[in-house]
Amino acid sequence: MDPLRLKERLKRALAARRRVPMASGPVPAAVLIPLYLKDGEFHLFFTKRTSQLTHHSGEISFPGGVREPEDRDCAATALREAWEEVGIVPADVEVLGELDDCHSIHNYLVTPVVGVIPAGYRLTINYGEIERIIEVPLSHFGRPGVFRTEEWQWQGKTRPMYFYQYGDDEIWGLTARILKQFLDVWNGKESLPEESYSEESELGYSRNE
């Protein structure tokens, strides 16, 4: 399918779905799911956090962080954080929509914001926070053996934990849960909201803490 038609289809799907928000209470935060064209297909990228950070060190995640008082909404938070971490100018991002809120184990209420950046965009990495960028074509996530689910015990219940493999990098925890939700929307096979998205997304957000 033509990339422009794919983008418009995703935008319509995000607008049409019933987004599941969460009640206020946890610290509000947002992440950007950055889509872009490369070699004729859509990619997204993740950031690998440096090991020197006090929080989330060594994690693979989407660009993002805590909402500041001057941020008018969650999209503004995600765009500001992407600018601070990897140098994406907010005006260069076409925001397509938002996914469901997620509650992290560190008591953050995270809103994933889906956005498209221009092809060939030159990133300016903040190496004080980011060790490297991990670029992945969306087609990779449909390959056999890339995705797996494990059943973990949490608060007396069995919960699914998602994992995606890309070379030597493993995407898991909250980032994998957000990624799975995005891929379900992208592929047109989103399931009904889970009974307790908040509790399940708290599972093992970081192996380093």
Tell me about this structure.
It is a single chain. The protein is of the alpha+beta class and 209 residues long. The chain has a domain of 140 residues: Nucleoside Triphosphate Pyrophosphohydrolase (Alpha-Beta Complex). Helix content is 22%, strand content 34%. It has four helices and eleven strands. The strands form two sheets. Strands 1, 2, 3, 4, 5, 6, 7 and 8 form an eight-stranded mixed β-sheet that branches. A hairpin with a 2-residue loop joins strand 1 and strand 2. The chain is globular, with a radius of gyration of 16 Å.
In short:
By secondary structure, the chain is of the alpha+beta class. It has helices at residues 3-16, 74-86, 173-186, 197-201; strands at residues 27-38, 41-49, 60-61, 64-66, 94-98, 102-103, 108-116, 130-137, 147-154, 157-166, 169-172.
Provide the residue-averaged pLDDT: 87
User: CATH top level of the domain at 3-142?
Assistant: Alpha Beta
* Rg calculated over all Cα atoms: 16 Å
Strand elements, count: 11
Largest sheet: 8 strands, mixed
Q: Give the topology string: H per helix, E per strand.
A: HEEEEHEEEEEEEHH
Quaternary organization: single chain
Put simply, the count of helices is 4
- The CATH superfamily of the domain at 3-142 is identified as Nucleoside Triphosphate Pyrophosphohydrolase
Which shape, going by the Cα principal axes? globular
Helicity level: 10-25%
Question: What fraction of the residues are assigned to beta strands by DSSP?
Answer: 25-35%
CATH topology category name of the domain at 3-142: Nucleoside Triphosphate Pyrophosphohydrolase
Q: Return the CATH architecture of the domain at 3-142.
A: Alpha-Beta Complex
For the termini, the CA-CA separation is: 43 Å
Low-confidence stretches: 192-209
What is the structural class?
alpha+beta
